[in-house]
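step=encode ok
step=design start
structure_in=
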């Protein structure tokens, strides 16, 4: 019985197919936004020094 349950639960029909449509980028957006904010915070003193001459 347990072997049968394992076979049923590990079948391909039990696992939903990944949606590679328009929703694939959504989990990456917060990480990209954090990266952009982090880089801009690091670069701000250098940009200010370049602008100040």
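sequence_out=
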């Amino acid at each position: 019985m347990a072997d049968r349950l394992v076979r049923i639960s590990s079948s391909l029909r039990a696992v939903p197919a990944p949606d590679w449509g328009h929703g694939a980028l959504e989990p990456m957006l917060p990480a990209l936004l954090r990266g952009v904010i982090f880089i801009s915070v690091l670069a701000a003193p250098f940009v200010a020094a370049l602008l100040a001459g």
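step=design ok
step=annotate ok -> Residues 28-52 form the longest helix (25 residues).
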